[in-house]
Amino acid sequence: MALGFLDRSRIVAPAGWSRWLIPPAALSVHLAIGQAYAWSVFKPPLEKYLSLSGTQSALPFQLGIVMLGLSAALFGTRVERNGPRWAMFVSLCCFCGGFLIAALGVSMQQYWLVVLGYGGLGGIGLGIGYISPVSTLIKWFPDRPGMATGIAIMGFGGGALIATPWSTAMLDAFGVTYNATGQVTAVGDGAIALAFLVHGLAYAVFMSLGVLMIRVPADDWKPAGYDAANDKAHALITTANVSAKNAIRTPQFWCLWIVLCFNVTAGIGILEKAAPMIGDFFRQTPMPVTATAAAGFVALLSLSNMIGRFVWSSTSDIIGRKNIYRLYLGLGALLYLTIALFTNESKTLFVICAMLILSFYGAGFATIPAYLKDLFGTYQVGAIHGRLLTAWSVAGVLGPLIINWIADAQKAAGKSGPALYTTSLFIVIGLLVIGFIANELVRPVNARFHEQTEQKVASS
Fold first, then answer.
1. Where are the transmembrane segments (predicted)?
2. With CB atoms 3.0 to 4.6 Å apart as the test, which of 169, 370, 384, 445 could cross-link to 146 if both were Cys?
3. pTM score, two decimals?
4. Measured in whole angstroms, how far is the alpha carbon of residue 203 from the centre of its chain?
């Protein structure tokens, strides 16, 4: 397939190219697509302007996350074959095109176009954009893969910190008005559509920087002084390669699928219900949590999610991937147990435990590509990562379902306060214990799954 400017052969780095230019290229994509976590900014204006329910206004985000996992799994091998510039360009077209279709949908008052544009086409951009720089970063940083992928995936977690105030200010400038309590009182004609249009165009320019900057190393390149044999100090690291087709036949892949799914389930349950959860826990205490304080709690969790992606994944380069997941899962279970046992005795203890849990949640995303590289090599690690992200799609449904369904059932039974969440907390603890066991079962991949001859990705 002739790709011209986008072809992998056009982006092989010349001698002397600085590998430190690659993380900014990856960040230009991840900071953009991380806007997905700021979708809630658009929910109230859309509900007001198009007379939608809260469930309806959530559909673009929900479809986007589902399409993220599906597109990453379906197109992972093609991303490896065609190279990161092609993948970043496709991500740009889909993600930004989704905004443009959403703008058209709002202007025509056809909400289904918003759902299919932002959630459907945009979700494909999310999935391809999420995995596009992963294998490239690992090839450039074989000595520090956890740090490298942590930088990029930190961008996805931090994208909302940029998008939220920017989108809010834009909506305000274009004609969305709010009352003193933050509720939308009026939406000017064209306000939301114009905001979507500007988002699509601005993100296209920003993501183009990554498309232009990205490079792959030459086949024989390695960092100065790097010796792959020294990596044997960390158990499980291999010098062999496993194809994506063979990887999903190994027990190691499915152990890591369980690890990622249950680690994400544990974190996303709190993240999705953070504000009402802390309010419920302390409502019956002498000092209940105000709406402003609850919003501050959500901001702290977002910051922990972002920082954890870099700090803990970088730490995994020192202590090994298996050990760091022992921390995420084992200590995570103990932190949930602490919340369940101490309930509303201390706000400080509750907040610290929640922040650590969310730091492990974000770090789980950032560390898993390096774990896959350790086990399966660099040959098709991006494609393998894409298949593994189906665990995220499952967890995205499972985590909120456990927390919300049980809380609703307990409320219907007349319970209140921490009692709304006790059962779900113990269920999550059980899932983390299962994830811990799955991590313990990870062993080096059997040689029968290794590629028998050195193959170039372009011929896969």
1. 20-39, 59-79, 86-105, 111-131, 151-171, 191-214, 253-271, 291-312, 324-343, 349-372, 384-407, 419-438
2. 370
3. 0.83
4. 18
Q: Point out which residues pair with 186 in neighbouring strands.
A: 177
**Where does 130-246 show beta strands of DSSP type E?**
176-178, 184-187
Q: DSSP letter string over 257-286?
A: HHHHHHHHHHHHHHHHTHHHHHHHHHTTSS
Nearest to 376 by CA among 235, 242, 259: 242
Backbone angles phi, psi at 190, to 5 degrees: 85, -5
Closest CA to 268 of 386, 392, 371: 392
Which CA distances in Å does 6 have to 81, 84, 214, 421? 12, 9, 11, 50
Q: What CATH code is assigned to 236-452?
A: 1.20.1250.20
Q: Which of 447, 452, 444 is nearest to 375 (CA)?
A: 444
> Which residue ranges make up each domain of the chain?
17-213, 236-452
Cβ(40)–Cβ(48) under 8 Å? no
Contact predicate 9/216, CB 8 Å: no
Domains 17-213 and 236-452 share a fold: yes
224-236 pLDDT, tens digit per residue, is: 887 766 665 466 7
Q: Are residues 289 and 351 in contact, defined by beta-carbon separation less than 8 angstroms? A: no
- pLDDT category at 456 given cuts 50, 70, 90 is very low
What are φ and ψ of residue 253, in 5° steps?
Answer: -60, -45
Gap between the Cα atoms of 386 and 235, Å rounded: 24
Element (H, E) at 176: strand 176-178
Predicted local distance difference test score (pLDDT) of residue 294? 78
State the pLDDT confidence band at 152, using cuts at 50, 70 and 90.
Answer: confident
- 457 Cα distance to chain centroid: 25
Q: Which residue has tokens 């601005």?
A: 202
Q: What is the rounded CA–CA span in Å between residue 118 and residue 112?
A: 10
The residue count for the chain: 460
Dihedral pair phi/psi, residue 451, rounded to 5°: -65, 130
> Yes or no: is domain 17-213 CATH 3.40.50.960?
no
- Give the torsion through C-alpha atoms of 191, 196, 202, 207, to 10 deg: 170
